């Protein structure tokens, strides 16, 4: 049997990989001061390490008061969305080498949500918008099958992209419309509505479309594609929003 | 300090906690206390699938699943519990589908199934397709679906509330659960929750290892809270090392990758699992595969300049198959290693993954105070618990199953108990232990740092109580942990504030990890045999005469305040399967 050539990857594994990097972090603690400030930290990091590793190094070795949320550290729990060099990303999915460590790396909280301390924001308005689109399967309960509902692989594929959402808020907090008007549902809520509207098993698509037809709904989207650029899961958010808009016009979904 | 009163309080909002919450909320006034927002829980990181003998794609039945579970657990499984797990698996999967979970589908539109380690047809004849899955994000879809249904049912969450103490009140000489004490991250305020029923569903303890698939937040908080109150922990020496973690990082690469046809290779390109498991090969159970990998590495057939890893080879699989079935893990390889899995093999090493042991419960989720006595009002489910359905080694896809079957059972049992029972009185000054702990940490002027002690703990655990253990290595770990526990008394934090003080919480979490690491090492030292995930090089065989029994570890405090661990043992429930030699 043909086997691939092993040992291609670690040519550089033995050389010392560490470089000096500056993290410029937006600090805010109302227990200390009403004003937010920038603070610089010098770090030794392997360029293959993540921004989250850098933040941990600061917290664990330099300043224990630095505060941020994190959990899984590999891009699946959605805790550590932040603005890194002006762009929304997950700190655990952003490698130092991919964001030019020559210059100070700026790290600040995501925008449009109230900052509570350092990089921690109030997520409640974000989750409220999510809850408002009825993000759960709704079926008419007559004749519930004893086995699973059937769904063709094609019907399943129809909403596959929007099932990837981890509710990190990177999309919603990158949206200029949301920055200006916190009442706007925002891309993440629409993505999660899309996930059910286009699920062949669901029977409440019309209700969800009516919710999104609201003045703070899907028509506020100005198609700037910030959300699609920001999504750490690679969801085509703007496309999903466009599909919801189209469904509102054609009433076909 | 605030006092709340609920019928049922659930600690943790991962799969088990939310599955329990859906049931408990329908039946009783329920609060869910969770240190993370529910969708941040580590259930979301599970990838490969959830086992159930649906027989959608080939012949299968729950009896075969029961056998595989018992054999996979190296016969330390309580067989009555395994039978419930396998039988109720089918309805558990169908429940989730009806709740909206988007499983992958067969051409007929039924739920698709794939192969997974240790799952076989007809008692080990050949691999069977039993894992129900949603690409390689099954855990993510379970977590999202359960949260969605919690929203639907109006479950009441207290997000970012850390439960730090279990309240026990003796009534007529019997220990009853009276409630819990929680710390609110946002404000630093202490909350006492008086409750008729408490369910722990707070997950695992993996962060006492360095190379681990576990989240930073998996620090055994639930286990530590009940252990400190004198309740036992069962089978803590059994920890699973998943064969395929990303080299040095420990990030999980699902066994589903091998279920889809992926192959493990050493530096010579050899498919070495053929030597160790002629029938199941790369799909042998996880303990077997992890030991085989380390055997290859120790015998000089590891890859890389330091020979410290092997490869997971997916290059022979069509890119379309990788895109459709394994999109997340191939993305991890690209993001974190800069490797293209279409063309290059992925460097992997075993990664600390799952605690088989935990808070002992019966099949209704009721927590045990000893081998037989139930603690009225106290329940546990999921990784925090030990039913024991996983015995000495859990099969892949049985944990997503466990949280659904026993999360549901515990939710129903706890709420039904709450409907009948009265509140038991709170102990005097119920918040005192937590307040003392918090204030001590906040005001400490010691010179030890949390991160340094944690690093030393993780390094000693990786070096001494991982895949291979001996009396000597375990003793080294026990001594080191004792030293670290002593130094922990002198730990200080920098953040003295009340608002979002994660510095403080990391110190609390380290205390939990140290307590549990000690229990694990002491339990491992006493088990002079090899079984499942616990492999003693000095006792390489299973010893059913002396060790076909569960370890029960109790914290003892002497009159002079000195702490020690007392070990006791509990019989294994055997029904239809007699122990046999385990071959794959």
Helices and strands in order:
The complex is a heterodimer of chains A (253) and B (584).
Chain A: E1 19-27, E2 37-45, H1 51-62, E3 81-84, E4 87-90, E5 105-108, E6 115-117, E7 120-121, H2 124-132, H3 153-158, H4 176-180, H5 187-197, H6 205-212, H7 226-230, H8 237-250
Parallel strand pairs in A: 1-5
Antiparallel strand pairs in A: 1-2, 3-4, 3-5, 6-7
Helix pairs in contact in A: 2-5, 5-6, 5-8
Chain B: E1 2-11, H1 15-27, E2 30-34, E3 50-51, H2 62-72, H3 79-99, E4 113-121, E5 126-132, H4 138-153, E6 156-159, E7 161-171, E8 174-184, E9 190-200, H5 221-228, E10 233-234, E11 239-246, H6 256-259, E12 263-265, H7 273-276, H8 286-298, E13 310-313, H9 319-325, H10 327-337, E14 346-355, E15 359-360, E16 366-368, E17 374-380, E18 385-386, H11 398-420, H12 432-443, H13 450-464, H14 471-488, H15 502-526, H16 544-547, E19 549-557, E20 563-571
Parallel strand pairs in B: 1-2, 1-9, 2-6, 9-17, 15-18
Antiparallel strand pairs in B: 3-5, 4-5, 7-8, 8-9, 10-19, 11-14, 12-13, 13-14, 16-17, 19-20
Helix pairs in contact in B: 1-4, 1-11, 2-3, 3-11, 5-15, 13-14, 13-15, 14-15
């Amino acid at each position: 049997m043909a086997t691939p050539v092993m040992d291609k990857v670690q040519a550089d594994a033995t050389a010392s990989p560490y470089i000096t990097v500056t993290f410029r972090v937006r600090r805010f603690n109302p227990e200390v001061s009403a004003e937010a400030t920038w603070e610089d930290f010098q770090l030794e990091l392997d360029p293959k390490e993540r921004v989250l590793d850098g933040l941990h190094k600061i917290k664990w070795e330099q300043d224990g008061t630095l505060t941020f949320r994190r959990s899984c550290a590999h891009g699946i729990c959605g805790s550590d969305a932040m603005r890194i060099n002006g762009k929304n990303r997950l700190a655990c999915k952003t490698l130092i080498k991919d964001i030019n460590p020559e210059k100070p790396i700026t790290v600040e909280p995501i925008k449009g949500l109230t900052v509570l301390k350092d990089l921690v924001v109030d997520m409640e308005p974000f989750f409220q918008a999510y809850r408002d689109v009825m993000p759960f399967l709704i079926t008419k309960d007559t004749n519930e099958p004893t086995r699973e509902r059937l769904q063709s692989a094609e019907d399943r594929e129809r909403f596959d992209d929007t099932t990837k959402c981890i509710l990190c808020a990177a999309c919603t907090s990158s949206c200029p419309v949301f920055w200006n008007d916190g009442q706007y549902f925002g891309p993440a809520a629409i993505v999660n509505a899309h996930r059910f509207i286009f699920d062949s098993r669901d029977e409440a698509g019309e209700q969800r479309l009516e919710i999104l037809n609201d003045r703070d709904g899907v028509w506020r989207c100005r198609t700037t594609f910030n959300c699609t650029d920001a999504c750490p899961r690679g969801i085509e958010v703007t496309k999903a929003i466009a599909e919801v808009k189209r469904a509102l016009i054609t009433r076909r979904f | 300090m605030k006092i709340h009163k609920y019928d049922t309080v659930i600690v943790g909002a991962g799969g088990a906690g939310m599955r329990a919450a859906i049931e408990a909320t329908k039946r009783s006034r329920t609060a869910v206390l969770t240190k993370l927002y529910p969708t941040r829980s580590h259930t979301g990181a599970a990838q490969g699938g959830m086992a159930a003998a649906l027989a959608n794609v080939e012949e299968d039945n729950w009896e075969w699943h029961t056998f595989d579970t018992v054999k996979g657990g190296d016969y330390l499984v309580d067989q009555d519990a395994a039978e419930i797990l396998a039988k109720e698996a089918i309805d558990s999967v169908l429940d989730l589908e009806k709740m909206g979970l988007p499983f992958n589908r067969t051409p007929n539109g039924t739920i698709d199934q794939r192969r997974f380690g240790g799952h076989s047809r007809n008692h080990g004849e050949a691999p069977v397709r039993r894992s129900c899955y949603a690409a390689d994000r099954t855990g993510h879809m379970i977590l999202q679906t359960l949260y969605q249904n919690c929203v639907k049912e109006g479950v009441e969450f207290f997000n970012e509330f850390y439960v730090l103490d279990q309240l026990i009140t003796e009534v007529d000489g019997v220990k009853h659960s009276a409630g819990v004490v929680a710390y609110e991250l946002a404000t630093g305020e202490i909350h006492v929750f008086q409750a008729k029923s408490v369910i722990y569903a707070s997950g695992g303890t993996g962060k006492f290892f360095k190379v681990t698939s576990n989240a930073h937040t998996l620090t055994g908080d639930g286990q530590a809270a009940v252990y400190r109150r004198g309740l036992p922990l069962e089978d803590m020496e059994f920890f699973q090392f998943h064969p395929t973690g990303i080299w040095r990082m420990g990030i999980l690469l699902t066994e589903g990758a091998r279920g889809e046809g992926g192959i493990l290779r050493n530096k010579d390109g050899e498919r070495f699992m053929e030597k160790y498991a002629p029938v199941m090969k790369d799909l042998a159970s996880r303990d077997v595969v992890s030991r085989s990998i380390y055997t290859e590495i120790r015998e000089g057939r590891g890859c890389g300049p330091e020979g410290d890893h092997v490869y997971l080879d997916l290059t022979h699989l069509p890119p379309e198959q990788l895109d459709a079935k394994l999109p997340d893990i191939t993305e991890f390889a690209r993001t974190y290693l800069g490797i293209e899995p279409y063309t290059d093999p992925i460097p992997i090493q075993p990664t600390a993954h799952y605690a088989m042991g935990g808070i002992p419960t019966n099949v209704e989720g009721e927590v045990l105070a000893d081998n037989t006595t139930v603690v009225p009002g106290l329940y546990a489910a999921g990784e925090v618990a030990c039913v024991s359905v996983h015995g000495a080694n859990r099969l892949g896809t049985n944990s997503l199953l466990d949280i659904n079957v026993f999360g549901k059972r515990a939710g129903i049992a706890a709420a039904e108990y709450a409907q009948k029972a009265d509140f038991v009185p709170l102990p005097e000054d119920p918040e005192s232990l937590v307040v003392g702990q918090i204030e001590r940490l906040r005001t400490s002027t010691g010179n030890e740092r949390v991160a340094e002690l944690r690093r030393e703990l993780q390094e000693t655990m990786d070096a001494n109580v991982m895949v291979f253990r001996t009396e000597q290595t375990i003793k080294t770990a026990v001594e080191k942990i004792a030293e670290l526990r002593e130094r922990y008394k002198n730990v200080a934090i920098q953040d003295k504030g009340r608002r979002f003080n994660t510095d403080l919480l990391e110190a609390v979490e380290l205390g939990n990890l140290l307590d549990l690491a000690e229990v694990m090492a002491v339990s491992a030292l006493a088990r002079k045999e090899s079984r499942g995930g616990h492999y003693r090089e000095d006792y390489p065989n299973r010893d059913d005469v002396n060790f076909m029994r569960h370890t029960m570890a109790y914290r003892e405090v002497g009159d002079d305040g000195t702490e020690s661990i007392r070990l006791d043992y509990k019989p294994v429930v055997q029904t239809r399967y007699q122990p046999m030699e385990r071959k794959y």
